[in-house]
Specification:
Shape: globular
Strand content: 15-25%
Mean pLDDT: 95
CATH architecture of the largest domain: 3-Layer(bba) Sandwich
Helix content: 25-40%
Number of domains: 2
Order of helices and strands: EHEHHEEEEEHEHHEHEHEEEEEEEHH
Oligomer: single chain
CATH superfamily of the largest domain: FAD/NAD(P)-binding domain
Distance between the termini: 20 Å
Largest sheet: 7 strands, mixed
Bound molecules: flavin-adenine dinucleotide
Low-confidence stretches: none
CATH class of the largest domain: Alpha Beta
Length: 394
């Protein structure tokens, strides 16, 4: 099958690249092995969590950071593009791209982020604010007593949803009868506070509508508190983006095991997807590699091997720093710097392939945890790589 551009990886960077390119009228395919990190994320868009002002703090990022290849204007425009896209498709995001905000976590701490789904619009809780918490009987991954430990004037009500998982409760919320009985129960609680926080379970497919109905019928402001994975807002975001891409004509090859590729004269010709019968050969004029870092399997590391898993590209690794003898959960661990080094056109340096572009957390020096720039960097490098790939095939 011949495409204009094939994007490998269905994470935030790959999906944004594919949507952008499909909107330019190009024939696009996304080939991916599995679900991305987006589906376990909070659904909030971190841009740069190291200061109050997102774009200003990027100035202080190391000069090798991929954000500098996109530039502040490019970062702003691509994240605005994401925001407009979500609004157009009924899943608006709230917030100012240039600013950070702090939202509540399930243990009552604060977390810095920039854009939040509408269901978290009221989640910026100040230290002295009084609000109400609704929790669910037997729920996993949500800890209202911890929240009360910090916000001592908080009252808690507990609803029996008949299921204990966040995904299970969220699926029930999509049912009109269940939602009506939940709303009736809320009314019966005679909640005094104007703001009501609850774990992120306000539906999987129609959360903006559920939020509106709750607010209209109870007269309260509700805010979701993102929970540990599996994360309902992350799953919503992933499904929405995938749906938008599909709606724009992007073809998807899921559960794809890329076993091989063919190159000729500095160009990737096609990739091979292993299949029980005949393999699929997917050829394109250009490819975008957006396979993520170690968690998603774009990079692989053990004591003897350090590699990029599709094209075996050269991987930058801070080998002079002792990778294995450090605490892996420490912020700023050197392994976070590893990845693919790119040139100004988002091509892998030293790869020798002219039609291969790289985006997202597989990029060297991205250090997404240290700089809290996860989805923001994925969106902006995804769109930037897409523009360069489009320019190339033109
Ligand atoms: C637990 C966790 C929570 C996070 N929460 C947030 C958050 O709330 N907000 C935020 O802004 N950031 C968050 N981040 C960071 C952010 O999610 C990521 O930095 C960003 O989404 C990465 O997107 P990506 O497109 O680069 O890659 P990924 O999301 O990693 O996607 C890579 C894709 O490539 C596919 N793939 C990998 N290898 C292959 C292969 N060999 N062949 C074919 N396909 C392959 C994978 O299956 C996957 O679909 C979080 C990170 C983690 C680890």
């Amino acid at each position: 099958m011949k495409y204009d551009i094939v994007v490998i990886g269905s994470g935030m960077s790959g999906l944004m690249a594919s949507i952008y390119l499909a909107e330019q009228g190009l024939n696009i395919a996304v080939v991916s092995r599995g679900d991305p990190i987006c589906s376990v994320s909070s659904g909030c868009i971190d841009i740069a969590g190291t200061g109050d002002n997102t774009l200003d703090s990027i100035t202080n990022f190391p000069h090798e950071h991929p954000y500098h290849k996109v530039g502040k204007k490019g970062i702003f425009e691509s994240i605005q593009y994401f925001k407009d896209l979500m609004e157009e498709h009924g899943n608006s995001y709230s917030g100012d791209i240039k600013k950070n905000r702090t939202i509540l976590t399930p243990i009552g701490k604060h977390r810095i982020t920039s854009l939040v789904p509408l269901t978290m619009k009221h989640a910026d809780i100040s230290k002295d604010e009084i609000f109400h918490i609704i929790s669910f009987k037997g729920i996993k991954d949500f800890f209202p007593s911890y929240v009360k430990g910090i916000f001592q004037n908080t009252d808690i009500s507990i609803f029996d949803a008949g299921t204990h998982t966040t995904m299970g409760i969220a699926a029930k919320m999509d049912n009109d009868n269940f939602l009506s009985s939940f709303i009736e129960w809320i009314k019966s609680q005679k909640i005094k506070q104007k703001k009501v926080g609850l774990p992120a379970v306000l539906g999987i497919t129609k959360s903006p509508w559920i939020l509106k109905k709750l607010e209209l019928e109870t007269g309260k402001f509700f805010f979701e508190i993102p929970t540990l994975p599996p994360s309902v807002p992350g799953i919503r975001l992933y499904r929405r983006l995938k749906g938008i891409a599909g709606g724009k004509g992007v073809s998807f090859y899921g559960s794809a095991d890329i076993s091989d590729f063919k190159s000729e004269k500095n160009k990737i010709q096609y990739i091979t997807i292993k299949k029980p019968g005949r393999p699929d050969y997917i050829d394109a004029k250009a490819f975008i590699l957006a396979t993520g870092s170690f968690v998603s399997g774009g990079l692989f590391l053990d004591k003897n091997i350090f590699k990029e898993t599709v094209f075996n590209l050269p991987v930058y690794a801070p080998i002079d720093e002792e990778l294995f003898n450090q605490d892996f959960f420490k912020l700023g661990h050197p392994i976070e710097k590893s990845g693919i080094i790119i040139d100004k056109d988002f091509k892998a340096k030293e790869s020798g392939y002219n039609n291969l572009f790289i985006a997202g957390s597989i990029l060297a020096h991205s250090e997404t945890m240290k700089f809290q720039c996860g989805h923001g960097m994925a969106i902006s490098t995804g769109v930037a790589a897409a523009k360069d790939a489009q320019e190339y095939i033109r």
